[in-house]
Amino acid sequence: MRPLRISAYSVASACGAGVPALAAALREGRSGLRANDFTEAPLATFIGRVPGIEGCALPADLAAWECRNNRLAWLALGCDGFRERALAARERYGADRVALVLGTSTSSIGATEEAYRRLLPDGRYPEDLRRPIVHTPHSLGDFVRAALALEGVAVTVGTACSSSAKVFAHAERLLRLGIADAAVVGGVDTLCGSVLFGFSSLELVSPEPCRPFDVARRGISIGEAGGFALLERDGEAGPWLLGCGESSDAHHMSSPHPHGLGARLAIEAALASSGLGPESVDYINLHGTASQKNDEVEARVIAELFPATTHASSTKGWTGHTLGAAGIVEAVIAFIALQEGLAPGTLNTATLDPACGPQLRLATERAQVRVALSNSFGFGGSNCALLFGRERID
User: Fold this and answer.
1) CATH code for 4-389?
2) In the chain, what is the straight-line distance between the N-terminal and C-terminal CA atoms, in Å?
3) pTM summary value
C-alpha cells in the first residue's frame, strides 16, 4: 500500500487530556487507573476514568447529541489542536472530500441506560432523553460529522476492541480508491454499567490494577478514552501509516483462537502490505488485556514471529482497556514512541508468564523507534494490526 501521512492526532485518556499528558505518564510510569467510583452498585475493580468529562459542555448548536460519549468526543476534538487541523483539511479538500471513519463498541449506551432507569410511569423515556440520535450506534459519527461540518462518507465501525484500529484500514481503502482525499479517523468509548457489569459477569474484571502478561494476572481494568487522527496522502509533519492487516477467525464469541491464527494473519498481512519484515519492527504495542487466554496466545505469536531484539509491551496498565477506543489510544502511543524515541514498558507487571518470549519488556526504555506495530484484537475473532513509521517507506 502507499503510505499515508498522519498529519494530526489527539487523545484524551485516564492519564489526562492531550498527547503531552499521556506521554508524561508513560515516561514517569504513572498509571491513570483508580478504584471504581463510577457505578452506583458496588463493583470491586479499578477503572481508567477520564478527568474533565463531567465539566465538558457541548456548544448550544450541538446540544441534541448531549451524552457522556459525545462529551468525551468533544473533549478529544479540542485536544492537541486537532479540531483546527481537521477544519483546515476541510477547507483544503472540501467538506465532501474528507471522510469520517470512527470506531466505538458501546456508542452512547450509557444515555440509554439512564433513560431506562428514569422511565416515566407510562413507560416512556424522560423528556430530556427523548432524543433518538443518542440511542443509536451511529450517535458518535453523527455528532462528530456535525461538529466538523463534514459532508463526505461517514462510517461507524463496531467490531468490539478492534474498532478504532480498523478505522485506519478502512480510511486507507477510501483514499486509495479515490472516494476521499483525506480522512478523520478515531474512536470513543465511555464507561457505562453494561460494560462494567457485563465484563464482570464473564469473570474477566480484575479486583486490582491490571497486570498484563503477569503470571498472576487476574483480568482487565476497563477504561474510557477518545482520540482522533487525520490521514492525508502527503503532509508536512507527522508519522506515517505504513501497513494494515485485518483478519476474522470467528473462533469464539469471547475467546481467542488457541493458536492465535487470527492474530498471526493480521500481523503478517500488515507486514506484507508495508513490504517490511519482522526484523524491521522496533516496538510493538500489544493488545495485552491481562486476561488469561488473550495474553497467553498473543505472547506465543509474538515469540514465534519476531526477533528477540524487538521491544514489545502492553500499555493497558496506564489507560485500562478502553474497548472500542483502544485502537486509537494505542496508535497514539505508537506515535509517541516514534516521535520521542520512547519504548513503553508493561506497567504493574512483576513476573512474566512463561509463554512470553524475550520481546516482552517490563521497563520503559529510551530507544531508536523507526517502525512501530500496534495490535488490536476484538471479541468474535476480529483482529487488526497497524504498522506506523517515523519516516515514509515505499
Assistant:
1) 3.40.47.10
2) 8
3) 0.97
Helix (H, G, I), strand (E, B) or coil at 134: helix
Q: Is 311 a residue of the active site?
A: no
Kindly tell me the sign of the dihedral angle through the C-alpha atoms of 332, 246, 323, 214.
negative
pLDDT digits (tens, 9 = 90+) for 254-303: 677 777 799 999 999 999 999 999 999 999 999 999 999 999 999 999 99
Hey, what's the cell of 357?
518470549
3-state secondary structure 270-324: HHHHHCCCHHHCCEEECCCCCCHHHHHHHHHHHHHHCCCCCEEECCHHHHCECHH
Reported as type and span, the H/E element at residue 217 is none
Query: Is 321 labeled as catalytic in the residue annotation?
Result: yes
Catalytic residue among 244, 321, 356, 384: 321
Set 67, 161, 192, 384: catalytic member: 161
Residue range 62-73, pLDDT digits in tens: 999 999 999 999
**CA-closest candidate to residue 301, choices 280, 287, 282:** 287
